[in-house]
């Protein structure tokens, strides 16, 4: 599997002529071969035209055909073997075990959506039968199903080069919904992207699907991604990355003659609340787990614990000392890119330079592009007075906010922007205090967890990886778990259509055996006669 | 029930001091008493503060309590009696039967959402139980439910003074979801709004709910509505009205530090496709139904058939003659406001002045503010060349587009913007032609209907009153039917929370008896042991 540096335009591999860029070895900063050609506007035009022409056929493929397609993608990814792991390790600086685990997660995610397809509930098939005898007016026959939105643009994320990238959750859920996908590959891992993109390309061919179901464009700059979001054929956008980039894409999408949804997962500092009972009972143990969560993947998780809230006092001092000691013992780790490393260093310097912020600990030093973990503390008063302290520092840095009491702690929570996660550390004695905080936490975060940390996002049916702005641009959605498919669907109602013109999912006799809602009540057809 | 002209700020009735305006008798253009005081920014601030403080308590009221509240609103509306009907007739020019029917629809809608609440499926309760033995890592316990978004701003519509206004579908679905509502009353029917608003206010009190659950503000201008959408406590917006106003509100909401969804139902010309078999078999009969649909409610339905597509020829000429004759026999009807009447006249004049447009028929003339129906025809070529011909003319005007063949007709459909409805008139012989058109129709419209007209929107579980932009700002949603509640919900995931801290909907043993999804599969708890 020699890398070519070519964009994938449907079944064709096309060398982009709009400049070129290289992947970079995260450890050394040196360029990796080959050069990747930047896609041209013509490449983009061709990819969009193919996606548009594939859409109607692809969205009406059978549930089984799409499920098999997703599974084939997973098989093709596994078939790349170690070449994928090694290239990905080089481009991201992440260790083998992490990349192998992420590959398993990516393939598992594709399988989850295959199961979602075979289950079919996402179609939300509904039948309100006609009532010709109704007075004063007869009732028409109404049937509803969800259909795919249209071609979707997906932006690969730097921090999950497999699970949130070319064949990641956005792509898997959009393809499951019936949407062709055009990926703008992340320029931080172009080789990984090419390998995975070609796996999808092979799966499209193996499954006999229209070539426009998948394309992938390389670009070292911003122009192609922006043009993609602006293109009238793109009907939704999936993105994981920085707040600035996500908001920029949202603005482009909103300014279109036909605005379209942008699902951007952006910025979160993931508050950790240490309740008094838990802090007193096992502060040192929590500190160990905290240090491990903070430094996992060089602190480059969206759900990294960037903020710790607790009531000041002896127990918090114990926690701070234990966390500081633990951080000093954790080795430094390479960051994803030299640019991310530089930004991290700047963020840490800004905190260190703040007269209201105390530096509690620094992690071990390492290589040139390794992140040195950092732990800071401040008062609730200072934190509330300085909105800049609420900004995410992407990497293994965290800020402890010492609160006078639980009331002040609650006030800090209320002042926060939207979050992906909030973690509560609690004992039985803390339940009453938690009950007071929970309504605020529900309004702030997509996921609330007890006695754990947000790093580690289970791919499941009850997962929400989302949250109010700026955690995401759309708090009504999740980018992980089976509900992610809902982002790429819209309902269509059919009134009095002859049965043979209805979509199969809605025909009399329920030929697909779907769970349908009849007059608002869920049941499997046939059950009525059982 | 004397009208006071006061805004309703929670339980208080407050005379706005920011200018004043009157309702207007639609037939005569004369001012109706009393004057309505324009709400001040202080009034707005107070309403938002009350809604914010009511939110956490209100959203956790029991399903039964919210269902009873919605039913009480319906009872209170009915209890107003004839005073509501008469004021509404005066302010809108709509006839008694229509207003009485709309009141029934409004109360029915409240009952539908009471049933949706008692059913509980909208919570989407999900449980993925812990798997402590799972390798390599144990699985956490994850549970998910939908919660209310937060306080919602609702803008009453001029054309449905009851069903899409103060206690209309937006308010009913938002209140059902658990969102406090602040209505900006439509200045075209302030007296109707005050009567209905006070009915809701009484229901809040009768049900012992926090007063901030409902407020209503009057304003003769735009400032209060715009400030409402910009307020940080408002988390979603429901709107039915013009494209310009809906887009303006969307822009305000997108420009907020925390952007929020705007559900604006705006502009649709609702294409009617007359297929050759149907046109030949019963063109004259369809023409009668068309004329009735076009002039229903003085043509002021969102789903009014503003565009007719057919293949040119003898059968179409027969249809045109029959429709023209039918229109001439239908009496003129008063429009909602003098301003809407003036805009309608301008729109008709623009069409009449177009050299590529032929005027086929005019309806009967009537009073000063009555709409004179108008039927025009043009060629597909001219229609495709002039985008302005695709603009909605709000009122009983329609444009027939004569196509050379079905291919050209398909091209016209592809060139259209998003629509609320598309109507197909077909016979068995037309099914093949329909099959070719359907993929395009699904992409263009929220509802596809056969052998009928879009006017008449059933309040049902399988209804979609929505569609791609500019029919609405969010094609993923419907503003009519039980799925309308989804607009005001977002999912929250709970990980490893102790049972007594979980929301009741997610606790062990399923105390609410909800249909829950366990590991992705729907079932009622207890069924496993049956």
From TrEMBL, chains A, B:
Record GO terms (molecular function): 2,5-dioxovalerate dehydrogenase (NADP+) activity
Keyword vocabulary terms for this entry: Oxidoreductase
E.C. designation(s): 1.2.1.26
Record domain Aldehyde dehydrogenase: where: 38-412
Keyword Thylakoid part of the UniProt annotation: no
Reaction catalysed by this enzyme: 2,5-dioxopentanoate + NADP(+) + H2O = 2-oxoglutarate + NADPH + 2 H(+); 2,5-dioxopentanoate + NAD(+) + H2O = 2-oxoglutarate + NADH + 2 H(+)
Pfam families the record matches: Aldedh (PF00171)
CDD domains: ALDH_KGSADH
PANTHER family in the record: ALDEHYDE DEHYDROGENASE-RELATED (PTHR43353:SF3), SUCCINATE-SEMIALDEHYDE DEHYDROGENASE, MITOCHONDRIAL (PTHR43353)
Identification of the protein by name: 2,5-dioxovalerate dehydrogenase
Organism: Paraburkholderia silviterrae
């Amino acid at each position: 599997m020699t890398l070519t540096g070519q964009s994938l335009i449907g079944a064709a591999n096309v060398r982009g002529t709009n400049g070129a860029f290289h992947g970079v070895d995260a450890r050394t900063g040196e360029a990796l071969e080959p050069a990747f050609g930047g896609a041209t506007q013509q490449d983009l035009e061709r990819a969009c035209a193919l996606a548009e022409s594939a859409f109607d056929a692809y969205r009406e493929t059978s549930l089984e055909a799409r499920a098999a397609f997703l599974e084939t993608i997973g098989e093709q990814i596994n078939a790349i073997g170690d070449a994928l792991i090694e290239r990905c390790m080089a481009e991201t600086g992440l260790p083998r075990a992490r990349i192998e685990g992420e590959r398993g997660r990516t393939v598992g995610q594709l399988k989850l959506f295959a199961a979602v397809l075979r289950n079919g509930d996402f179609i939300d098939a509904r039948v309100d039968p006609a009532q010709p005898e109704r007075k004063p007016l007869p009732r028409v026959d109404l049937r509803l199903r969800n259909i795919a939105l249209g071609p979707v643009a997906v932006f690969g994320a730097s921090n999950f080069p497999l699970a949130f990238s070319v064949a990641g959750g956005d792509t898997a859920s959009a393809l499951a919904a019936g949407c062709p996908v055009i990926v703008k590959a992340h320029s931080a891992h172009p080789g990984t992207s090419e390998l995975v993109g070609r796996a999808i390309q092979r799966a499209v061919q193996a499954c006999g699907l229209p070539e426009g179901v998948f394309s992938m464009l390389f670009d070292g700059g911003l122009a192609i991604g922006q043009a993609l979001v602006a293109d009238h054929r793109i009907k939704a956008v999936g993105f994981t990355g920085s707040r600035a980039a996500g908001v920029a894409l949202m603005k482009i999408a909103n300014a279109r003659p036909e605005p379209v949804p942008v699902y951007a997962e952006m910025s979160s500092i993931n508050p950790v609340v240490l309740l008094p009972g838990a802090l007193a009972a096992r502060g040192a143990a929590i500190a160990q787990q905290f240090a491990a969560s903070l430094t996992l993947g060089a602190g480059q998780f969206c759900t990294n614990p960037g903020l710790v809230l607790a009531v000041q006092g002896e127990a918090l001092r114990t926690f701070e000392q234990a966390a500081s000691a633990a951080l000093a013992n954790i080795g430094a780790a390479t960051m994803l890119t030299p640019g991310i490393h530089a930004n991290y260093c700047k963020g840490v310097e800004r905190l260190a330079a703040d007269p209201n912020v105390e530096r509690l600990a620094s992690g071990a030093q390492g290589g040139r592009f390794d992140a040195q973990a950092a732990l800071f503390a401040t008062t609730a008063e200072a934190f509330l007075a300085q909105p800049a302290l609420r900004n995410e520092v992407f990497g293994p840095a965290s800020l402890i906010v010492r609160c006078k009491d639980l009331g002040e702690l609650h006030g800090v929570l209320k002042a926060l922007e939207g979050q992906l996660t909030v973690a509560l550390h609690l004992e039985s004695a803390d339940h009453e205090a938690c009950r007071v905080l929970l309504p605020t936490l529900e309004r702030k975060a997509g996921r609330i967890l007890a006695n754990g940390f947000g790093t580690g996002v289970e791919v499941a049916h009850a997962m929400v990886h989302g949250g109010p702005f700026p955690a995401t641009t759309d708090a009504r959605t999740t980018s992980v778990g089976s509900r992610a498919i809902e982002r790429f669907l819209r309902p269509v109602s059919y009134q009095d259509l002859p049965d043979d013109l209805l979509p199969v999912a809605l025909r009399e006799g329920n030929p697909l055996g779907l769970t349908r809602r009849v007059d608002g009540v869920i049941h499997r057809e046939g059950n009525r006669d059982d």
